[in-house]
UniProtKB/TrEMBL annotation:
<feature type="transmembrane region" description="Helical">
    <location>
        <begin position="222"/>
        <end position="243"/>
    </location>
</feature>
<dbReference type="InterPro" id="IPR052923">
    <property type="entry name" value="UPF0718"/>
</dbReference>
<feature type="transmembrane region" description="Helical">
    <location>
        <begin position="106"/>
        <end position="125"/>
    </location>
</feature>
<feature type="transmembrane region" description="Helical">
    <location>
        <begin position="279"/>
        <end position="301"/>
    </location>
</feature>
<keyword id="KW-0472">Membrane</keyword>
<protein>
    <recommendedName>
        <fullName>Permease</fullName>
    </recommendedName>
</protein>
<feature type="region of interest" description="Disordered">
    <location>
        <begin position="1"/>
        <end position="21"/>
    </location>
</feature>
<keyword id="KW-1133">Transmembrane helix</keyword>
<dbReference type="InterPro" id="IPR005524">
    <property type="entry name" value="DUF318"/>
</dbReference>
<comment type="similarity">
    <text>Belongs to the UPF0718 family.</text>
</comment>
<keyword id="KW-1003">Cell membrane</keyword>
<dbReference type="Pfam" id="PF03773">
    <property type="entry name" value="ArsP_1"/>
</dbReference>
<feature type="transmembrane region" description="Helical">
    <location>
        <begin position="321"/>
        <end position="341"/>
    </location>
</feature>
<feature type="transmembrane region" description="Helical">
    <location>
        <begin position="166"/>
        <end position="186"/>
    </location>
</feature>
<feature type="transmembrane region" description="Helical">
    <location>
        <begin position="59"/>
        <end position="86"/>
    </location>
</feature>
<feature type="transmembrane region" description="Helical">
    <location>
        <begin position="137"/>
        <end position="160"/>
    </location>
</feature>
<keyword id="KW-0812">Transmembrane</keyword>
């Protein structure tokens, strides 16, 4: 009995792999050059359009807000980049009390010594969770670090030179927000609300990659925070020019409405905590208490932070943590303002 072996066809020789040409993207530098060219060509018309008192006033306010806030913004970004690259998250874990209810306020106070902007605080909080720190403790640090650190407090003092109580009111209101939210999460929070990858342990960066991480983190934070600063300065300029002064005076007389409006404005503007004090101070005609609410709510929850938290910890976490933080931050700011500002 013979078996027939079928001849296998010889494989065709594979030709050289043709890689698709990468699509060319327009960079921000090219956009800037195009804008400058258009501005030069239309210089005469631009001068006529900008030669309006209202626009000149708005431009002055915009430049003043950005110039005053930029040094604090750069300093905060450099510090946050250094912490992300060179300070192991396990350092805070070793300093925390074993009892969770005591560790929450300690983590909140650690924000004074470990300043980060709210953008950098989200990955730092995730890193703390990955190091085994209780979730409530990491969240307390997440809320406290952007609001109670020395850079933010000094910026607040510079922005409100005639209101020394504003610094203490912001410190106490923000710290109370962080501690209360940490305790609430310890009591009612559930681990399944946070996605698994946020709790997965990651290797520590080696010595060579730390400087690269520092520069990349600082650059990314500066670009993001700088964009939000420009948006905030532009909004402050528009509010001071477009909104009639009579409306602001009426809003200032209705303290409850002013508090609600400023809390929602802080959520929408999504300013960096190193710069928000100058924006709040530039809104003339508004009492100090609504401005304090703006300063306490902004670093705790805004649209930018909500997106970051949803991407880092999951939507189930964000849709519960965000609204609760808004309510707690507003209440803590009002109570702190009544104590330190006399409800002004």
């Amino acid at each position: 009995m013979s078996t027939q072996v079928e001849a296998q066809p010889e494989p065709e020789e594979a030709g050289p792999e043709v890689k698709p040409e990468p699509k060319r993207r327009v960079t921000s530098l090219e956009v800037l050059c195009a804008v400058l060219v258009v501005a030069l060509l239309a210089q005469g018309r631009l001068v006529d359009w900008l030669d309006v008192p209202a626009i000149q006033t708005g431009a002055t306010i915009f430049v003043a807000v950005c110039v005053q806030a930029l040094p604090f913004l750069v300093l905060g970004v450099l510090i946050s980049g250094a912490i992300a690259a060179f300070v192991p998250a396990s350092v805070l874990n070793r300093l925390l009390p074993k009892r969770e209810s005591l560790a929450v306020p300690v983590a909140g106070m650690a924000g004074v010594a470990l300043p980060t902007c709210e953008c950098a605080a989200v990955p730092v909080a995730r890193r703390l969770m990955q190091q085994g720190v209780p979730t409530s403790v990491a969240l307390a640090f997440l809320l406290a670090a952007p609001a109670v650190n020395p850079v933010v407090l000094v910026a607040t003092n510079v922005a409100f030179p005639n209101s020394p109580g504003m610094v203490a009111a912001r410190l106490v209101g923000s710290l109370a927000t962080a501690i209360v939210m940490g305790w609430l999460w310890a009591r009612f929070g559930k681990a399944e609300w946070i996605i698994e990858r946020a709790l997965r342990r990651l290797p520590e960066p080696d010595g060579r990659s730390r400087w690269r991480l520092f520069f990349e983190t600082s650059r990314a934070d500066l670009v993001d925070a700088g964009g939000f600063l420009v948006l905030g300065g532009l909004t402050a300029a528009v509010l001071n020019v477009v909104i009639p002064r009579s409306w602001v005076d009426t809003l200032g007389e209705q303290i409850v409405v002013g508090v609600i409006v400023m809390a929602l404005l802080a959520v929408v503007l999504a300013l960096c905590s190193e710069a928000d004090a100058f924006v709040a101070a530039s809104i003339s005609g508004m009492p100090l208490l609504p401005k304090l609410v703006f300063l306490v709510v902004g670093p705790a929850i805004d649209v930018k932070l909500f997106a970051l938290q949803a991407g880092t910890f999951g939507r189930a976490f964000a849709i519960r943590f965000g609204p609760a933080t808004l309510v707690v931050a507003t209440a803590c700011a009002v109570l702190s303002g009544l104590i330190f500002l006399g409800g002004a």
